[in-house]
Amino acid sequence: MSKSTAFGKSILAFAIVSASAASSFARDENLEKIAAFKSTDTEIDIPTVPQTGASVDKLKANLKKIKLPEGFKIELYGVVPDARYMAVAPSTNMLFVGTRKTTVWAVTDRNGDMKADEVKPFAPSIKFKNPNGVCWTKDGFLIVVESNRVLNFPAAEYFYEGPDVAVITAVPEGGLIPVEEQSFNHTGRTCKVADDGKLYVTLGQPYNVQPKDKIDLYNKTGIGGVIRLNPFDGSGKEVYAVGMRNPAGMDINPKDKTIWTTDNQVDGLGDDVPPGELNRITKAGQHFGFPYWNGKYKVAGSPAAPELKDINEPAGAIFPQVEFPAHQAQLGMSFYTGKQFPKKYQGGMFIAAHGSWNRTVPSGYLINFVPVNADGTAGTAEVFAEGFLDQETKRAFGRPVDVANLPDGSILVSDDFAGALYRISYVGNSSAAIRPAELQVPRKRSTTRKGN
């Protein structure tokens, strides 16, 4: 048995929890009380995260190592432990930040100085389970998407001070995916609400490469793809796109309303294959090739999935808009909607690369920029911010996760390793020289995948 085959089989063996363990859920009695407008008697004095001290000073010092195009600067916005995906409030100087643990953070800039004054747990009386994905409905309801549950918080940005916060259980525990497919692997969901009012949720599939007998099930349930549903009661759930491995970030192009996702690639095939993906979903029902394809690399029949050698290529499967270097783990992304940055960046995408965990020479730990062409397709990717990885020691002091727009035209970057949010702003002028792009990924795109 080859090393990569053994790697794949070991992933399959340890990634899935047993159906019996997944089929029983502990009651969240506090959630039931809040839904009935009753108090949980949770301690009202919610502790906050310190925003000063030696560790904060070190975070600020580390940021001096970050390389940005001329005219930009990066600053510490706030200390937010395990910070993952962000939802900037529509009406006030605050945001909510998800984690892969048990906390959603409420982050408030009370004096408008573009720095967090208060960071504290949101709705601490509720037992969150991997509340990675946070997003807003068009009328200001905060959505929190966990591994297998969706909660909806009316007026969260105005009523987050106490431990008990009004909540709607849009999808009860066990309602996003079949409980027998629950896992600890690839279960950090992300979400967005589109102009159609539907909640779009990414669902990573839990294997390195799923076995043959799971392919149809995953296509039917949307695992390894994107589903959409009513954000208030979970009704109308349907599969929107399939054929992905672990779509770990998502945003909607405000110009043409297409939905874009990042997608993390197969492990165990070496340092340089397969590529990471940036996908553009233009309509419901599209298939992005996995597990037959990963980028232009044929996974089916490879050492990572020898048992899939005889599966059929999915009809009309779509190539990614951009192929990133292998194992950089591009995660959260955001279309830049501000006007502060030079025109080059307006309407393009900023994408966080979390960094490799299994590569001989570490790669990633940076922020990509991807322009958008006039026809709505992606241009050539380049590095926008780098330096979170020390090139001498090969040690990282930061791992970017997500990117979000602030109302003034600056952007926020979350970092779950350092436990921080960074603000990147433009302080130069529109004629400032932009340093040459690095790690460009030139590639001609095709509408559909062809060949072997």
Number of contiguous helices: 5
Strands of the largest sheet, in order across it?
10-11-12-13-17
Give the tally of β-strands: 27
Enumerate the spans where pLDDT stays under 50 for 5 or more consecutive residues: 1-24, 430-447
Radius of gyration: 21 Å
**Global mean pLDDT:** 91
Q: How many angstroms does the end-to-end distance come to?
A: 24 Å
Please state the overall shape, judged from the principal axes of the Cα atoms. Answer: globular
| Structural class by sheet pairing and helices | mainly beta
**What percent strand?**
25-35%
Major sheet size, sense and barrel closure: 5 strands, mixed
The percentage helix is under 10%
Describe this structure in words.
Mean pLDDT is 91; it is low at 1-24 and 430-447. This protein has 5 helices and 27 strands. Strands 10-11-12-13-17 form a 5-stranded mixed beta sheet, with helices on one face. It has a 4-stranded antiparallel beta sheet with strand order 1-27-26-25. It is globular and about 60 Å long. It is 9% helix and 27% strand. By secondary structure, the protein is mainly beta.
Q: How would you sum up this structure in a few lines?
A:
With 452 residues, this protein is mainly β.
In terms of topology, how is this protein built?
Blueprint: H1 3-15, H2 19-22, H3 29-35, H4 54-62, E1 72-79, E2 86-88, E3 94-97, E4 105-108, E5 118-121, E6 133-136, E7 141-145, E8 150-154, E9 168-171, E10 191-193, E11 199-203, H5 215-221, E12 225-229, E13 238-242, E14 249-252, E15 259-263, E16 276-281, E17 286-287, E18 293-294, E19 297-298, E20 322-324, E21 330-335, E22 349-353, E23 366-370, E24 382-386, E25 400-405, E26 411-415, E27 420-426
Parallel strand pairs: 13-17
Antiparallel strand pairs: 1-27, 2-3, 3-4, 4-5, 6-7, 7-8, 8-9, 10-11, 11-12, 12-13, 14-15, 15-16, 16-20, 18-19, 21-22, 22-23, 23-24, 25-26, 26-27
